[in-house]
Amino acid sequence: MGSSMDSLMGRDKGGGGLKPTNRVTSFDVARRAGVSRSVVSAVLNGTPGIGVSAETREAVLEAIRELGYEVNAQARGMRTGVSHCIAVCGSTTNPLFLQALEGIQQACVKLGYHVLIYGEETKAAGGRGGLLNLYRQRRIDGILTLDSAGRDDEEWAEATREAAVPYLSIEGYPEQEAVPSVNVDYRASVLEAFDWMKSRGASLPDYLLFWSAPGEEEWAERERREAYLGAMKEFGGEPIVVTIREGDEAAIVRYWDDRLQRGGGMPALLVNWSTGLHGLLREADRRGLRAGRDFRLMALDNTLRINRQLLPSIACMEIPYAEMGRNAAERLIAMLTSRPGSRAEWPDPAAGERSGVKALFRAELFAGESV
């Protein structure tokens, strides 16, 4: 035990003190990777004027991992003005934020960046303005925010422009071409859900629109509702939109009473939020009804990622928040590492780009057993 501890602590058994350990330097990294020290510096600091191929960059990063090389981030930031850290802002109580954070973290680890989580709950301590202060202090290089779908806060967008901070929104500013963002094609998700339900022999569905708080209809919900109305018109059906506040069990009971009295064969239900499934399925079970057998059911998002674990599994248009987070981080870091005055070559998302600063993702169909 003593000898193991001496080894771990670097203790000099002869003198009783601590013997200095050999500190790994950038010269050691360069030698291991087979490159010059300037190339190592370019990888670590984003040194302008030195081009580094993906293969060489990976060789340097691998040498860093093997040797356990550690950069003094504070000293490097003071010297270069680059912190290699991006701030990610959102509500830590929002499950979508945590999903996006998965992808953001994956991209940052791959590209050599750190993540600073800046909870939306910090509004009481200065709100998002604190992010701009962090940028001015060179503690972060750029900002990502997970916004409510369709958020269009012109005051914040203008503040980022005035501070010249590299900024990108996930879900916000879908109609502002000047603000870089990663968004979802909500209309397409509704139309694909319609096609899937129709191919399975389902009748034209009612649309159950769950909401969590009063206020103006969000852009995403407006896109979904308008897509539903358009699809019903195309198929010659009478649209039935039922608005239910999340957690309102009495409203769910009233809906089932009305729907079963209407008759018309096996009911088909299209639900905007998967979070509304709990009460809906609970009341159906109380009436002896089972999704997929007695009625058709499909959700338009997977906020809580529970649809695959339910019995039966619920058909769903799953929004790839983790992939959106990964893409957003890659795009932001591409802004940071592009040459001054040039446009970054941003990676294309799965569904292609809408413009130079916009990425538009499509939800992915999970067939499930409920349709």
Please give the order of strands in the largest beta sheet: 2-1-3-4-5-12-11
Structural class estimated from helices and strands: alpha/beta
The overall pLDDT, averaged over residues, is 84
- Which ranges are low-confidence, i.e. pLDDT below 50, for 5 or more consecutive residues? 1-20, 339-355
CATH homologous superfamily classification of the largest domain: Response regulator
Q: Quaternary status of these chains?
A: single chain
The rounded Rg comes to: 26 Å
Number of helical runs? 13
Protein name: LacI family transcriptional regulator
InterPro entries: HTH_LacI, LacI/GalR-like_sensor, Lambda_DNA-bd_dom_sf, Peripla_BP_I
GO molecular function: DNA-binding transcription factor activity; transcription cis-regulatory region binding
Region (Disordered): 1-23
